[in-house]
């Protein structure tokens, strides 16, 4: 049985007071699903979020980290720093990091290595742009992202890897992949992993869908057999909407 996960990526939203308010609202929600729930506030609010959620089954995760252990990397945050404020899981390879901060597959491979070396879990994002889908190149793009950033890993590393398929054209646009498109790509990702490793590895890796998931479309997307949950942007900033999505699993 694969882990089912719903993770909220808050991006560069919510100052400290807003973070505390939203967490209070999240704690008042009723959870009726077995999904693991995670939220990714911005770096400056991780510690406050961790404190507010101590003993509460919502994991606080990070949106990014640097590949180096420490050193002269002004403005960056290391795995050890994240762990020191209670963070055990990090999102890597989000399309906004790839597009606006030039994060390449090669750089992401280094970040993945550092996270795993520090015994962290990684939510690794992949996804094609609209042009790739229109030219029917979407599977190639996603396969290459996985090969370039993850295929150097041993099979047992996948115990700490979660994949998130996020078509770039569906992020923050209100445009969602159809449940069939999501299922098709998730099955393709699983096949890519089983070809390289084994069915045992690919069967155990959770693959989340991300891209304009909302309370009104979550259930249908999550009903697909290879969709193991969601990475949620905009809708994770509203406690009612986020838990409606959590409870749609
Ligand atoms: C995301 O940024 O990971 C995301 C899926 O955003 P949204 O839900 O807003 O499309």
Low-pLDDT windows of residues: none
Helicity range: 25-40%
**Structural class, please?**
alpha/beta
Q: Mean of residue pLDDT? A: 97
Q: What ligand molecules are bound, each kind once?
A: phosphoenolpyruvate
How do the strands line up in the largest sheet?
3-2-1-8-7-6-5-4
Which percent range describes the beta-strand content?
5-15%
How many beta strands in the DSSP annotation? 8
Oligomer: single chain
Total of DSSP H or I helical runs spanning 4+ residues: 11
The outline comes out as globular
Distance between the termini: 14 Å
How many strands, which pairing sense, and closed or not: the largest β-sheet?
A: 8 strands, parallel
Radius of gyration: 17 Å
Description:
The two termini are about 15 Å apart. The protein has helices at about 15-25, 45-50, 80-85, 95-100, 105-115, 130-135, 140-150, 180-195, 200-205, 220, 240-245; strands at about 5-10, 35-40, 60, 90, 120-125, 160-165, 205-210, 230. Helices cover about 40% and strands about 15% of the residues. The chain has about 250 residues and is of the alpha/beta class. An 8-stranded parallel sheet has the order 3-2-1-8-7-6-5-4. The mean pLDDT is about 95.
